Amino acid sequence: MTVSSQALGTDPSGAAMHGDDPAEAHGSGPAGRYSVLDVARAEWIKLVTVRSTTWSIVALVVVSTGIGSLVAMAKASQFSRHPYATGIGFDPTRLSLSGLLLGQFAIGVLGALFVTAEYSTGTIYSTLAAVPRRHLVVIAKTVVFGLVAFAASEVTCFASFYAGQAILSGSAPYATLSSPGALRAVISGGLYLTALGLLALGIGCIVRHTAAAISIFVTILLVFPLILQALPTSYINAVGKFLPANIGLVLLSGSTPASSILMEHMFSPWVGFGILCSYAVVALVAGTLSMIFRDA
Amino acid sequence: MIEVQGVTKRYGDTVAVNGLTFDVRPGNVTGFLGLNGSGKSTTMRLIMGLDYPDSGSIRIDGRRFRDLPRPLNKVGALLEARAIHPGRSASNHLLALAAANGIKRSRVEEVLQLVGLEKVARKRAGKFSLGMGQRLGIAAALLGDPEVLLFDEPINGLDPEGILWVRNLLHHLAGEGRTIFVSSHLMSEMALTADHVIVIGKGRMIANSSMADFLARNRRQAVRVRTPEPARLRQAIDEMGATVRVGHDGVLSVEGMTVEAVGDLAFSIGVPLHELSSSGASLEETFMDLTRGSLEYTDGSDLGSDGSRNDVLDDVVSS
Asked: Would you call B59 an interface residue with chain A, using a CB distance cutoff of 8 Å?
């Protein structure tokens, strides 16, 4: 208090403001309009200066790699005891990446929080006071989060893959990146998580509430498949392939619907990825419109 | 310069702002007065383009807020003290805002020094006291060195030294030719800070005038009387048609009579006086009467479409 009072208390004409001539001083600044790049830089600073980002990414990597390793260990010992039974449909790539089915919730939380934390803390007022063209905020968040999520997810996929294969290699069939479908699965696994994160970000823009956004995200991934199980098989086959969780199953597997009986009713990896992306786009467009047309 | 033209805003069935029209001019501190819930914060959010009016228009130097090329260079606002992520440091909060409008990093250090937060700039804002939060909000408002500044209840949570600091800051900024719009529910604070005053009640305009005119028009003189026989004196004053209030300390406060008239009256009925002096009714009291009167009147809803309340103001003051 003392320091600042001195700054203004006795001699308020101090050098606090820009320039010497008050009439010229304020309202100055770089010419031209702020750009989406400026907004993206702001969003980058916001993303990397809160702890929830660090924790979400640590959770993503540790949980995914850890669970993947545990599954690989279990399967390896199972295989050594019952090689023929376990060997049917044995997909070492999928086993090593199975931890991502839990890790995906960390990326969803990160995506949702990137928007909803602005609403819960009131930061959104500062954000929109600086960037009233609100679509730029969503675009900047999408790009910044998309890049961070993709990098983190790919690191996770490669780490899970190498850890899992190292464990399997002692006592069971294992894959290398040159095995059929392995490299594709590791790459598409990261893309899958990125698309899911963007879906959560879009949901966050629509509902503006952390718990609500995460609940919806979890419902889509966990509850929809359960509901589907209650339906007749013909429905399961017709509708099931559209569920993000099932698309993810294919994207995280080294085998494909064409080569595996377990996934015969699913979309092929890239078709499924395209459909998943369209969900994310729909959520992001709806989120942008919601942001533009509703009060902050 | 802020121009608000016939702005109305509803939230569901509630009319938060009702046909407000006013200008906020540069070089002045314009006080924005109203009780809590009268629509001050809503009006500020509308000016900042955060909420959209149902009708009417708002211009800042002739432009809509969303069309400003670099908003922070034109308008700075302290809207809610806690409009910051508690896990982010003060300096990172300001760096992100600066980046959004292409403001250089060095300016962040400048404003942190200006508000006296340079020593805690790297601390997480969640650990800040209410007063420090206000200072950070003020730093954010000043970040773009803007011509127009909005402060919503800036002295909330500040200690007396902080209040003085804000008062000096506002005068200093207005002296530089900036447009300063500051809301408060404290009449006495505004009387010290503002050159011009806009009073609203239930979202409607009650008064819009220079502070000097406002005070002159609304200043009520009262006579303070202390006597061992208050009942008799009271009755006599009632008969003269003046109004008497009895304070909790037994002191009578008379309105509508001069000091001389009260003294003569007491002498003529033989009531001894222990104290007789003139005093102004407190500004807060005046303000409360003014807004309370307007609220009752508002239910009649027969106001001019321009939202002008000067007729009502006169009614309230003369009653």
From this structure: no
